Amino acid sequence: MFNTVLFPVDRSREAREAAEVVSNIVKTYNSRLVLLSVVEAKPDNDMNSEPEVAKLLQGAKALFGEQGITAEILEKEGIPSFTICDVADEINADLIIMGSRGLGLAQENPNESVAHRAIDLAPCPVMIVP
């Protein structure tokens, strides 16, 4: 059912918590797992450096490796919601699993959250883990 699962990762607590759900689904469906880090081209973004992104992705890959899950890693630059959906299309993802900070609903325009935009734009189902 879920042959390829895309898991966008960042350093948020929500992404770490979503990892357990990702692990369960990947194991249940024997899915291919692709980890993605999207770097926004902003001068104040502390995740702009290649070493930081590489460290994040390698750490996530190792975490899944400890559970017997092989993960592929991708690093892209762009607007997160659009890039996540573009990558999902490129890799023929059957499911995108994302953590949600829950900030979008508290703001005046809930459509501004990455998760909300991904739901609207994704070429496949999106599971949001609160």
From TrEMBL:
A Pfam family of this chain: Usp
Segments forming domain UspA: 1-130
CDD domains, alphabetized: USP-like
Membership in a protein family: Belongs to the universal stress protein A family.
Name listed for the protein in its UniProt record: UspA domain-containing protein
Naturally occurring in which organism (per UniProt): Hyella patelloides LEGE 07179
Taxonomic lineage from the root: Bacteria, Bacillati, Cyanobacteriota, Cyanophyceae, Pleurocapsales
